[in-house]
Amino acid sequence: MNNFFLIFSNCQLTKGLKRSTITDFQRNKTYIIPNDLYEIIIKAKQIMVSQIYLEYGADNKDTLDNYFNFLTQNELGFYCDDTDRHLFPDLDLTFNNPKNINNCVIEEPRELKSFNKIVSELDSLGCEYVELIFYKEVQNDFLNELLNIFIKKSIKNIGLIFKFDKTKGINYLKELCSKNLRLIKILIHSCEDDRVDITHNLTKIIYINKCIYNSSFCGNINKSFFSSTMEHYTESLVYNTCLNKKIAIDINGEIRNCPSMKESYGNIKSTSLSKVIDNDSYRKYWTINKSQIHSCKSCEFRHICTDCRAYIDIPEDYYSKPLKCGYNPHTNEWQEWSTNPLKQKIIEYYRMQELVKKE
Hints:
Blueprint: E1 4-7, E2 11-15, E3 19-24, E4 29-34, H1 35-44, H2 49-56, H3 61-73, E5 77-80, E6 103-107, H4 112-124, E7 129-133, H5 140-148, E8 157-163, H6 170-179, E9 183-189, E10 195-198, E11 204-207, H7 230-238, E12 246-249, E13 255-256, H8 273-277, H9 280-283, E14 327-328, E15 333-334, H10 344-349, H11 353-357
Parallel strand pairs: 6-7, 6-12, 7-8, 8-9, 9-11
Antiparallel strand pairs: 1-5, 2-3, 3-4, 10-11, 12-13, 14-15
């Protein structure tokens, strides 16, 4: 095999402590691979495959065969002549987003007039996604009026989280989705069971049994939240994928990085969002990425994972691991974070005892 082996430019490698991953942006899929294969892929770009076989010896021929077969069968890479290698440049992984604010979370909006003002300001800042969270029941008419405010705005997507009540049956939800084409997600809490439905316009409707009674529900790190998109991956290389270009207005109108963060940068009644985003203190969390966070920086999933800076293992350390992460990159095992004996004092510190009981 007097060829080189290249992985496709849309497939990116991430090396972890004990194993690595290949993230395929085109298929939005991530593969777990041994660290040995990671090293071989790096080498195969620089030296011929035949040299790799010689270097590893006859005893490892079957393993090498399996590695290269895995890569070709999953269309992650290809053999290439030396004269053609320059035809396949590396992908530019620079993350660019011209928006001042990309997404916003608003807890329990109560007044149409003030909500209209908030949405108008978000629109002027280029915000693309707004999520509305209701911990208690919300009247259907009021919810409809809130959503009507978005009609003449350029905000692309809307998410809803609200408590289940009998008036919000499937017919109401279908009508809601039909009238509000920007709705991409509706999460309904306090239901009888957990399930996911897809209704009109591809809106994802998620029913969960758990009661969401305050902002402490957020910050969970879970495989189901992994994102293998190029946008998420490239953002994670430099920025915090949870807090970068994010703003939140909590239940009391306080402006924060997210509803669970301690710092407030003013109240929406007297402070503009434009003023807050120019505050260096507010922006300090934007650049805390996974490669800086303890434990996360050695994790093979760090560039497809979510993050949380509100609930962390060491509250006084901005670079501490997310509290609600049960993954250990040293053992490659997932465990339930809420029952970890080492986290019990921190759970008490955040006053999450009731939340943990209901998990």
